[in-house]
Amino acid sequence: MMKQQNWFGGGSSALLLSAVMLATFLSPSHGAAVMSVDLGSEWMKIGVVSPGVPMEIALNKESKRKTPTAIAFRNGDRLIGEDAQTLGVRFPANNYGYLVDLLGKTIDNPMVELYRKRFPYYDIIEDPTRKTVVFKNGDEQYTIEELVAQLLQVAKGYAEDSTGQTITECVVVVPGFFGQAERQALITAAKLANLKVLQLINDYTAVGLNYGIFRRKEFNETAQYFVFYDMGASKTTASVISYQLVKDKATKEILPVVQVLGVGYDRTLGGLEMQVRLRDYLGREFNKMSKSDVFSNPRAMAKLFKEAGRLKNVLSANSEHYAQIEGLLDEQDFRLLVTRDQFEELCKDLFARITAPIDKALSQAGLSLDIVNQVVLFGGNTRVPKVQDILKAHIKQELAKNVNADEAACMGAVYRAADLATGFKVKKFVVKDAVLFPIQVVFAREGESGSTRFVRRTLFGAMNSYPQKKVITFNKHTDDFEFAVDYAELDLVVGKDEIANLGSLNLTKVSLTEVAKKLNANKADNVESKGIKAHFILDDSGLFSLANVELVLEKTVKEDDESTLQKLGNTISKLFSGDSDEEKSTSTEETPKEEEQEEEKKSGDDKSANATNAENATVSGGNDGAKNKTEKPKIVTIKEPIPSNVEVLYISPLEGSQYDASVNKIKSLNEVEQSKKRRETALNALESFVIDAQVKLDEEEYSSCATSEEADSIRKHCSEISEWLYEDGSDADADTYEKKLDELRTVANEVYARHWEHKERPEALSALKKMIEGADGFLDKARNFTKEGNPEKDVFTQVEIDTLERVIKETIEWEKVETSEQKKLARNKPVRLTVKDITDKMALLDREVKYLVNKLKLWRPKVKPTPPPKVEKNSSKQEEQQTDEPVVEDEEQVIEETPKQSNEEAASSEEQQYDNQDINPSKTEEPSDDQHTEL
Question: Which residues, in sequence order, are CB contacts of 712 under 8 Å at separation 6+?
Fold first, then answer.
């Protein structure tokens, strides 16, 4: 389609060159798109946000909004999602699913044993170094981190396809009961996938954020309480969340805050357990019918598992349904009527556990159901009617279903991703999560009798909000020592049955060195030790870490002896504050700004006190007071870093040679997959071109553009390639297919080029004629802007007018001659009048007109000087002069202003007449670094 280009006015014209140049110079904006991944046990959802585009769910290659979290390997091929599930029915041991439940687990974890029981056909072995789970299939072995990393890579690919941009940052949704081991394993998996995790966000927190951002106008200074109930594939959670408007201490803004107050969960209660029970029931019924053991056949078990999942979903909306599988085992078909009552009887003990998470969450929050605004459902398995009936009876109110059960967490997480990433500006919504598993510090202390006892101090208690920082002071240790960081008080928080699922309760062991050396180096009469301070962080991903350890000393100096450096050090506020008792956990730092304000306040108080003391001394003592003021001691704080070594105890991290081996393995798999995709693309392109060429040669539109020799050559090449593809070429590589395609294109492209010229030429000529008409109309008006035509508006010279006239005449003559000559040629002869020739002529004519248009826009009339008034001797002449002068001035004023007004009016008039075209060019600016996308 020929595009039209505006000049400044008058007529309309088409300018192909302008369209080509626009396509050449305009490039996509280089925005920083980010994504979120809701990596569930059964399904994976991907949220994306890019500059100028609202939050949305990225579609997979099947154009669906969620993808099964399954990955399969077979004969060197890697399959993801639905393809993996399809392969898994035939080869169950090659398809790996429900992997999230195994992250950060050692081989002896109860969750691993449960996984083996549910899926007995997997060969699960122990990593000899890390004691973690490894899937073995023949000679191939895959760690959990490697498999999850490949799922994240696929999510990254879907997100990039959706946004058209490279993505390197993400927020990942995780179950709230993930401990340190699981969270660290997921961070490692993301690193293997070349993704930077901005935050691991708990699923209920993400849903709470999603719920709040669309209802921020409903919140006020009074807290509103909601319970979010989630039953997913493998777990159930209930969380008590509050919404409230709070004034920010630093910015003084009134901001909405979403805060987690209580959490209850059941790690094994979910749709997967229901599906497994239904699978086993179908298996037992089949065994009764066939007298065979279906449980010993992995393929039959995989078919039963798939049918049980379908049946479970259907029974959510129907009271009964048939389970039916063709050729389940030994060519035997299976068909069985299953009622909803039978299904509910199978899961009777599971339904009894449904309300426990709500009671636990309310208990932790210290609230009762009567002050809860709503109980909001999310998670796919909350659609089960029995689940909803039990919840309604328990809470004695209607259940809220006003969030997307599948996508709420993903959309909340992508909003958080936009908030954390650079290049976006979002409406602030403060998020405060809560600690599920308390963390304590354990250290040894020597008593007066010489005996050693262990002291335990809680750093982050249950339901403490995070992110936050804390510090603990050891003021009685004078030599190297070590302390441990463990989970604390889990019996009261999660119960005895859940403790084993957490794995190791010991998190880290910290060894401090050079303690005595630092103390001795700073030993002096005027130096006092304030202890060793260890600073800890629980970041917004829920990951615990030791920030730093330092020896804090206070040095007493006199003002006369105080060095410049010491004076400077005395004015610096302390980074952390704490009391001197080593058995107490000290200063909880909500934000660095709050801490700085507190320290500045302390510093200000100290300065005020010093000033008051000095003033009193001066008044009471005269010169002696001044002397006392000069000699008044000051305290300088000295901080010496203490080297520390942190040993992780809960699980050995994937690092060093093992990490490099995983990187290389994933890289190799990616290369194989890319090579496979390239081969498939090349094969499809070759087959399509062959079929397309054969079809086109049977059409008069194309065959008329080819000589008989050319048509025969194309048909011959197509026939040869077709035979080769179905014989020797079926196993060729991508290079061979691409080479064959290039050969065929070389033969056919000459014919295709002629066809394109004959098809596009009429439109190009039409555009040229419109441009000539527009230029001719502009020329007629331009003659009135010359010195000869209008002395007051001498914008153009006669040479410029003559030049434009000549170009128009030459273009008209050229068009007539070339069109006439082209019509004499057959369609299969070399083209004389090409589209490029036409666009070149259009460009020449456009350049001449634009030159004059720009000159007119920049032209300003010359201002004539006003002559000084003449002084007449007689009064009558003076009166005559006074009477005539205003008339002259008015005329001169008109002469001065009219050209300016005429210029603008002319330009406006010409634009209205000349610019009625498709493309209205506008100024295009590259986005600056400080531009943001507002969500």
Answer: none
Asked if pLDDT for residue 818 goes beyond 60, the answer is yes
| Confidence label for 561 from pLDDT (cuts 50, 70 and 90) | low
Determine the pLDDT at residue 832. 93
Q: How confident is the model at residue 19 (pLDDT cuts 50, 70, 90)?
A: very low
pLDDT in tens, 885-923: 333 333 333 323 333 344 444 434 433 333 333 323 333
C-alpha distances in angstroms, 658 versus 123, 129, 135, 153, 739? 21, 9, 16, 19, 41
Give 670's pLDDT tier (boundaries 50, 70, 90). Answer: very high
Model pLDDT, residue 632 = 63
Q: H-type helices in 698-797, by residue range?
A: 700-703, 708-725, 734-782
Please state the three-class secondary structure of 651-676 as a single string: CCCCCHHHHHHHHHHHHHHHHHHHHH
Instruction: Output the DSSP codes for 441-462.
Output: EEEEEE-TTS-EEEEEEEEE-T
What are the structure tokens assigned to 151, written together?
A: 């799922």
pLDDT tier, 493 (very low <50, low <70, confident <90, very high otherwise): confident
CB 227 within 8 A of CB 262: no
Strand 140-143's sheet: what is its strand order?
A: 123-126, 133-137, 140-143
**Does residue 629 carry a pLDDT above 90?**
no
Least confident of 318-327, 609-618, 644-653: 609-618
Taking every pair of C-alpha atoms in the chain, what is the biggest distance, in angstroms?
140
Residues near 801 by Cβ (< 8 Å), separated by ≥ 6? 779, 782, 783, 786
Q: What are the C-alpha distances in Å from 60 to residues 43, 193, 284? A: 12, 18, 37
HEC readout, 791-827: HHHCCECHHHHHHHHHHHHHHHHHHHHHHHHHHCCCC
HSE-up (13 A, CA, CB side) for residue 387: 24
The amino acid sitting at 931 is Q
Task: Please state the rounded mean pLDDT for residues 650-674.
Answer: 92
**Mean pLDDT, the chain, whole residue set:** 82
User: Helix or strand or coil: residue 519?
Assistant: helix
Average pLDDT over residues 841-852: 93
**Beta pairing partners, 487:** 439
Altogether, the residues listed in the chain come to a count of: 935
| Structural contact between residues 71 and 94, judged by C-beta atoms closer than 8 angstroms | no
Alpha carbon distance 565, 605 (integer Å): 22
| Residue 715 in tokens | 């048909």
Sign of the CA dihedral with 361 first, then 366, 369, and 375 last: negative
On whether the CB atoms of residues 915 and 7 are closer than 8 A, the answer is yes
Residue 383 Ramachandran class (φ > 0 left, ψ -120 to 50 alpha, else beta): alpha
Helix (H, G, I), strand (E, B) or coil at 266: strand
Q: For the packed helices 835-858 and 734-782, what is the interaxial angle rounded to 10 degrees?
A: 40
Residue 579: Cβ-neighbour burial (10 angstroms; 0-12, 13-18, 19+): middle
Distance CA 171, CA 203 (A): 11
Assess contact for 794 and 787: CB atoms under 8 A. Answer: yes
> Which residues are registered as beta bridge partners of 637?
554
Closest-CA residue to 641 (of 535, 743, 545, 560): 535
Helix, strand or coil, per DSSP, at residue 735: helix
Q: Nearest 5 degrees, angle CA 440-CA 441-CA 447?
A: 130
Partners of 78 in the beta sheet? 73
Q: Give the helix ranges, DSSP H, for 291-384.
A: 298-315, 340-346, 348-351, 356-365
pLDDT at 450 over 70: no
Q: Report d(CA 324, CA 335) in Å as an integer.
A: 4
Angle at 917 (CA atoms; ends 915, 921), nearest 5 degrees: 75
